[in-house]
């Protein structure tokens, strides 16, 4: 079992510092990277706008995919090897899969080149023309130059590789984010089709909380194949989202419906849909599950469901006229990216031992025509749904399962049968508010918060993860502190800048020992969401303020 990404297997060079509920009763449950381009971040082609499905001869007399509701023993996922999928599933989008892989590989190649490049630079630091040669190497391999001050001071006390590493991670992230906002490579702004479908199912907003674990950062664009601008995503450790914050968002959305008629008018019979996505590991369930719940899959699911109930109760207790919300619970196998969906009844109650298993449905519908496969999925979802389940919810879940089939095939065929980084392999922590551009698996650990005090559990889990990934090898934890703001609001930028500074001071105080040892660096950024522009870097701990400034 490979538990960390290969690029960190040997990082001692860096410095002198020492180092879900069981799948029982799930519906349908039957028992090489492309060459790296020089110059750092290379924009990938944009994802296609049209479907690319495979047609095949009709299959007559297809048996319905009726589920069994009896309990079954847990099973371990099979690791599919390259070549085992001889033909695509009839409902998968092959061209989109290729485009998503190209984008993923381009971003990862830029981050993965940091360590090899710094190793080469480290070997040069005693050369008389070190600064010039180091900058040439960095420009060629990473696509940007390094801070001259750090390079020029290398002759005094050696090369500060911790600062160079943090700077390189920050600059690579900044370039990636700016490219994302400029090009929209995942076509996340194309929301009309999904918005129309969502409202036809009886919902006016889909608000998703995945776990903050980096292995779920791609939940929207990859796992569920949804346009990022059409859904709200806010990640929390263990999916334990802030109920009060979500109530405030509900109020904002309902007020917008009443005042502006967006996304629809307040008299339209649709509801706010809150979704929680917990996760589990089918290949190593005892060690690679949710860290916030001690890799206890059942506890992760129970905690997510409990938080959903708290949100529903808060809305019903606080507002009159039958105000309520719709709830949905999804489990994600981080080894295969297959989802299992627990369908609610009319009151939002769900049976954690009953779900729709997308991976089993992929196998069972693989040889059908597109029409028969789609009908089989719908029948399986209907069979798993409680008798009082909402028809619109059933249609939405069937669509999510169908979308997930493309991601299952993506992992099976384009990721060599399974992810090599089965465990954590995040490159940096994202702290604050924003980060919608982070749509790639295992790139970032999220901690959405306004203050360190309210987000302490998420921060502590993140630092624990990075202690194993970076600190044990002498590398620092790179933390991007960010607050987005609305430029149309007077004084919003100044307040966002003050927030990142305040959060930075609190981080430095909470993790003082790591900061003093150079094992935690921060980059402070803000972004005007109204302008649609890139990031504005306020400051970074890598480069202290010039002499005389405070």
UniProtKB/TrEMBL annotation:
Q: Which InterPro entries match?
A: Carboxysome_shell_carb_anhy, CsoSCA_C, CsoSCA_C_sf, CsoSCA_cat, CsoSCA_N, CsoSCA_N_sf
Composition bias, kind Low complexity: at what positions? 16-25
Q: What is its EC number?
A: 4.2.1.1
Q: Which GO terms describe its molecular function?
A: carbonate dehydratase activity; metal ion binding
Q: Where is the composition biased (Basic residues)?
A: 72-81
Kindly list the places in or outside the cell where this protein is found, as annotated in its UniProt entry: Carboxysome
> Ranges for the Carboxysome Shell Carbonic Anhydrase N-terminal domain?
89-181
> What are the boundaries of the region Disordered?
16-99
**Family to which the UniProt record says this protein belongs:** Belongs to the beta-class carbonic anhydrase family. CsoSCA subfamily.
Protein name listed in UniProt: Carboxysome shell carbonic anhydrase
């Amino acid at each position: 079992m490979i538990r960390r990404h290969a690029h960190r297997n040997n990082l001692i060079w860096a410095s002198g510092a020492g180092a879900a509920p069981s799948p029982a009763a799930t519906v349908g449950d039957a028992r090489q990277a492309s060459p790296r381009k020089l110059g750092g971040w290379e924009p990938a082609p944009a994802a296609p706008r049209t479907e690319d499905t495979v047609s095949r001869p009709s299959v007559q007399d297809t048996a319905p995919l009726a589920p069994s509701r009896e309990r079954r023993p847990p099973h371990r996922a099979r690791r599919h090897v390259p070549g085992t999928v001889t033909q695509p599933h009839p409902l998968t989008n092959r061209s989109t899969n290729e485009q998503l892989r190209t984008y993923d590989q381009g971003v990862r190649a830029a981050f993965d080149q940091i360590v090899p490049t710094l190793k080469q630079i480290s070997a040069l630091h005693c050369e008389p023309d070190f600064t010039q040669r180091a900058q040439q190497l960095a420009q060629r391999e990473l696509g940007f130059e390094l801070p001259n001050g750090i390079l020029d001071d290398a002759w005094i006390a050696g090369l500060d590789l911790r600062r160079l590493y943090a700077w390189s991670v920050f600059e690579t992230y900044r370039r990636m984010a700016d490219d994302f906002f400029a090009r929209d490579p995942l076509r996340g702004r194309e929301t009309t089709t999904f918005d129309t479908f969502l409202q036809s199912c009886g919902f006016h907003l889909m608000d998703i909380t995945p776990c903050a674990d980096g292995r779920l950062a791609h939940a929207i664009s990859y796992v569920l194949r949804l346009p990022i601008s059409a859904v709200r995503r806010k990640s929390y450790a263990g999916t334990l989202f802030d109920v009060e914050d979500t109530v405030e968002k509900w109020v904002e959305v309902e007020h917008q419906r009443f005042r502006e008629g967006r996304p629809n008018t307040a008299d339209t019979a649709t509801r706010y849909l809150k979704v929680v996505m917990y996760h589990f590991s089918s290949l190593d369930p005892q060690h690679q599950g949710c860290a916030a719940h001690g890799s206890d899959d059942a506890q992760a699911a129970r905690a997510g469901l409990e938080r959903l109930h708290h949100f529903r109760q808060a809305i019903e207790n606080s507002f009159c006229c039958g105000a309520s919300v719709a709830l949905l619970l999804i489990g994600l196998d981080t080894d295969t990216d297959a989802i299992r969906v627990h369908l609610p009844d009319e009151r939002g109650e769900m049976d954690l031992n009953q779900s729709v298993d997308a991976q089993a449905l992929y196998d069972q519908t693989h040889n059908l025509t597109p029409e028969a496969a789609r009908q089989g999925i719908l029948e399986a979802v209907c069979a798993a749904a409680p008798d009082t389940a909402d028809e619109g919810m059933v249609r939405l879940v069937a669509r999510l399962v169908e979308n997930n089939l493309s991601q299952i095939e993506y992992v099976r065929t384009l990721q060599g049968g399974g992810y090599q980084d089965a465990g954590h392999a995040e490159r940096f922590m994202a702290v604050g508010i924003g980060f919608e551009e982070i749509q790639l698996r295992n790139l970032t650990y999220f901690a959405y918060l306004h203050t360190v005090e309210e987000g302490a559990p998420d921060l502590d889990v993140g630092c624990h993860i990075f202690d194993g990934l970076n600190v044990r090898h002498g590398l620092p934890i790179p933390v991007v502190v960010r607050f987005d703001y609305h430029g149309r609001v007077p004084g919003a930028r100044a307040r966002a800048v003050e927030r990142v500074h305040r959060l930075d001071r609190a981080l430095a105080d909470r993790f003082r020992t790591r900061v003093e040892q150079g094992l935690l660096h921060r980059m402070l950024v803000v972004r005007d969401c109204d302008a649609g522009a890139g990031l504005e870097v306020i400051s970074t701990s890598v480069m202290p303020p010039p002499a005389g400034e405070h």
